[in-house]
Amino acid sequence: LFVALALAGVAGASMPARAADATPFEIYSIASLTGFGAFLGQAQQDTLQRLAISVNKNGGIKGRPIHFTLYDDQTNPQVAVQLVNQILAKNANILVGPGLTAPCLAVMPLVQGKMVQWCASPGVHPDKDSYSFSSSVSTTDLVKAFVRYFRGRGMTRLAVLFPTDATGQDADKNLAEVLALPENKDIKLVAHEYMTNTDLSVAAQIAKIKAANPQALIAWTIGTPTATVLHGVNDAGLDIPVGLSNANMTFPAMKQWAAFLPKDLLFPGAPFLAGATGSAQQKVAIEAFFDVTKGQGVQPDFQTGLIWDPAVLMITALRSLGTDATATQIRDYIDKIHDFSGIAGVYEFRDGSH
Predict the structure, then answer these.
(1) CA-CA distance, 74 to 61, in Å (whole number)?
(2) From edge to edge, which strands make up the β-sheet containing 132-134?
(3) How far from 183 is each of 180, 186, 332, CA to CA, in Å?
(4) CA nearest 244: which of 273, 215, 270, 266?
(5) What pTM does this model have?
(6) Cα 333 versus chain centre, distance
(7) Which of 84, 137, 148, 188 sits 20 to 30 Å CA-CA off 73?
(8) Residue 62: its pLDDT value, please?
C-alpha cells in the first residue's frame, strides 16, 4: 500500500492531470548550495526539482501541484537556524533538509512539535517520537561496514582522519562503538588524527599517519576538506586504500579531484548504485528514480539519490492526509510505515527509529 501511494506520482501511474490548474503547495527545503558542502546541496536541489516535475505530471497531491522552495544555508549552522525560523513563520508542516550534520543538529530543537523535518544527513540520529528523521543508512552502520570490509581483507592496522566539526564527532562516536565489538578485537587503530574544515593542508597529519604504517585510512570528511585530505595523501605518497564518507560519492567531485585520487578509493555505497534491487517493489522504486535521472541524461550518484526516498515518503504522507495535515499527524503517519521499498533499501519505522 505504501509503495503504491508513494510511486503513483513518480512511476507513471495514471492520475488526474489537473494539478497545473491549482495553487502550488510549497515544500520548503534547506540545502548547502554554497560553502564547502555546495556540491551536496546542488545535487539535492536538482533531485527535488526533477521529482516535483514528475509528481506534478501525474496529479500532484490530490490534484494540487507541488513546488520545492530551496533556501541556501551556506554550509553554516547559524544560517540554517535563521532560515528555519523564517520557514516556521510561514506555518509550514514539513521541511526537507538541511543536508549536513551540523546544520541539521542546529535546527532540530526548533522544529519539534511544529513541523516534520527530514535531514538529508545520515549523521544525525533523531530520538524516538521526535519530529525529525534522517536519510539513508546510519553512519554507525557505514563505519561498521568499512571496518568489517578492511578486516575481511586482512587489514587490521587502521588510521583515521576526522574533522573537528559535528560530522567528525559523530564519526568518533561511531568508530568507538564499532571497535568495541568482539569481532573487531584484532583491529588496531595506529593513528587518529584531526583537521578543521578550513585547513589548507594536512601534511603534518598525513606524515604522522604514514609513520604509523597503517594498512588503510578512513577519512570522514565532506566536500572541499576531502580534496585537502586527498591532496595530502597524494603528495605524501601514502599508497594504501582510502575509505571516504559516501557524502563524497558524486561524479562532479570525482571529476574535479581526478588528478590526485588514490588508486584504491572506497565508499560505503547504496545498493541502487550497483543496480541491485532486492525485490520487485524496490525495482519499481529504482526504475522511478532512474526515469528522472538516467532517462533525462543525468548520471545518478549517491548524492543525487540521497534525498529521493525522504521526499517520496513526505509526499506519500501528504497524499494520504492532505496538505493541511498537522506536523503531528504527518509524524504519526510516517511512524506507522513499514516494508516501504525505497531506492536505498526497505524502510521500517514502527520500531521508533527515525
Answers:
(1) 30
(2) 66-72, 25-31, 94-96, 116-119, 132-134
(3) 8, 8, 37
(4) 266
(5) 0.88
(6) 22
(7) 137
(8) 92
Q: Which residues pair with 188 in a beta bridge?
A: 157
pLDDT for the residue 273: 86
Cis-peptide, bond into residue 98, ω within 30° of zero:
yes
- Cβ(310)–Cβ(118) below 8 Å: yes
**Comparing C-alpha atoms, which of 296, 323, 315 is closest to residue 2?**
315
Stretches in the chain below the pLDDT threshold 50: 1-5, 8-9, 11-20
Cβ atoms of residues 143 and 178 within 8 Å: yes
For residue 207, give the C-alpha cell.
606524515
Q: How far apart are CA 168 and CA 155, in angstroms?
A: 23
Q: Rounded to an integer, what distance in angstroms lies between the CA atom of residue 264 and that of residue 282?
A: 30
Residues in the chain, how many? 354
The residues, any chain, with a CB within 8 Å of residue 1's CB and separated by 6 or more, are none
What does DSSP say about strands 116-119 and 157-163: parallel, antiparallel, or unpaired?
unpaired
Burial of 128 (0-12, 13-18, 19+ CB in 10 A): exposed
What residues contact 348, with CB distance under 8 A and at least 6 apart? Answer: 337, 338, 339, 340
Q: How far apart are CA 117 and CA 191, in angstroms?
A: 37
